[in-house]
Amino acid sequence: MSNRITQLFNIEYPIIQAGMIWNSGWRLASAASNAGILGLIGAGSMYPDVLREHIQKCKKATDKPFGVNVPMLYPNIEDIMNIIVEENVKIVFTSAGNPKTWTTWLKDRGISVVHVVSSLKFALKAQEAGADAIVAEGFEAGGHNGREESTTLTLIPMVREQLEVPLIAAGGIATGAAMLAVMILGADGVQIGSRFVASEESSAHQKFKQMVVDAKEGATQLTLKELAPVRLLKNDFYNQIEALYKKGPSVEDLKTLLGRARAKRGMFEGDLDEGELEIGQISGLINDIKPVAVIVANLLQEFNMAKHDVENLIIS
User: Fold this and answer.
1) Are residues 46 and 101 in contact, defined by beta-carbon separation less than 8 angstroms?
2) Residue 146's pLDDT band (boundaries 50, 70, 90)?
3) Which residues on adjacent β-strands are paired with residue 113?
4) What does the radius of gyration of the chain's CA atoms come to, in whole angstroms?
5) Cβ count within 10 A of residue 194
6) Distance from CA of residue 144 to its chain's centroid?
7) Distance in angstroms (rounded) separating the CA atoms of residues 142 and 230
8) Is the pLDDT confidence value at 77 over 90?
9) Residue 314 CB coordination number (10 Å)
10) Helices of type H across 112-190
């Protein structure tokens, strides 16, 4: 399968494994790249020296292209960017910030830059800033989301209509059929997160992985919009948020409840009660924990089967 995404990243299939905090270390990224897709290391949960270690280990584990995802609202951003350049990483996905801040700087150093957005407005701003491709993510996605609450089904065709650079769809995609659907709507490829959380190579805690597998319809909710909208699995911490909302909390009240390191405690350390458990709505369709290579093979098989079924559809 060759198109603008596979050519941009020099990969076999137009699939990107999302760079998620506390889930996307070098084992996941290298396994994804070895399976023919683009693996991403999630820098958002890493101190600069830890990121360097993960990049170096990923280089040893794969000779295929891989990249780093950088949420620009995190501290040490200058150190992170300098390490990426020093370690000769050629692909960077940026998010949670103004693309003008780093896009030109990275491209001047020979790095392909992709920016993650949640709306047509910001997709066009990222294109104007010089991004080589755009990830348009619907609010079905896990973790931090845009405030627009646009679904993937509506967002992708709206962005495609006006965007010139390659478009990657994200949010609610965990099957080959969903991949085909968004590509029919205009995406050149897909970014998949939640499905790879429930992989053997994910750095997430086993208890969190199992909770993702056990999740059913309605198990997640978008909350904390006053701080930064985030989609979470419902647990005791989520119930505390809901109880606080009933009292009409201030932003400071919400910040106090959130505290520090909630995401690490939940996803990485396995505290299913007090931790912040970020995952997408599609978790209701994830029923097992598999090696990345098997997940990718299944995606491709499902894609081809769905494509065959669609080709046989006739409306008269």
Assistant:
1) no
2) confident
3) 92
4) 19
5) 30
6) 10
7) 7
8) yes
9) 5
10) 120-128, 152-162, 176-184
Other beta carbons less than 10 A from residue 114's beta carbon: 29
Residue 17 CA to residue 24 CA, distance in Å, equals 9
Report the CATH superfamily, name and number, of domain 4-203+285-311. Answer: Aldolase class I (3.20.20.70)
Residue positions counted in the chain: 316
Residue 122 CA, distance from chain mean position = 17
Give the integer Cα–Cα distance in Å for 126 and 114.
Answer: 9
For residue 38, list its beta bridge partners: 16
Query: What residue segments make up the domains of the chain, in order of their start?
Result: 4-203+285-311, 206-282
pLDDT tens digits, one per residue of 260-296 = 889 999 999 999 999 999 999 999 999 999 999 999 9
For the entire predicted model, the pTM comes to: 0.95
Cα–Cα distance, 27 to 4 (Å, whole number) = 27
Strands (DSSP E) along 133-275, which ranges? 133-137, 143-144, 167-170, 189-192, 220-223, 230-233
- pLDDT over 90 for what percent of the chain? 89
**CA–CA distances in Å: residue 176 to residues 38, 216, 299:** 16, 20, 4
d(CA 225, CA 310): 38
Count the neighbouring beta carbons within 10 Å of the beta carbon of residue 23: 31
Task: From residue 96, give the alpha-carbon distance in Å to each of 200, 250, 288.
Answer: 28, 23, 30
Own/partner long-range contacts of 243-249 (Cβ < 8 Å, ≥24 apart):
none
- One-letter amino acid of 150: S
Evaluate if residue 315 carries a pLDDT over 80.
no
Average pLDDT of the residues of the chain: 95
Check pLDDT > 80 for residue 308. yes
- Which strands, in side-by-side order, build the sheet including 133-137? 15-17, 189-192, 167-170, 133-137, 112-117, 91-95, 66-71, 39-42
Cβ contact 175:299 at 8 Å: yes
Alpha carbons 8 and 133: distance in angstroms, whole number: 9
Single out the residue of 210, 185, 184 nearest to residue 267, CA to CA: 210
> At what angle are helices 152-162 and 120-128 packed, to 10 degrees?
40
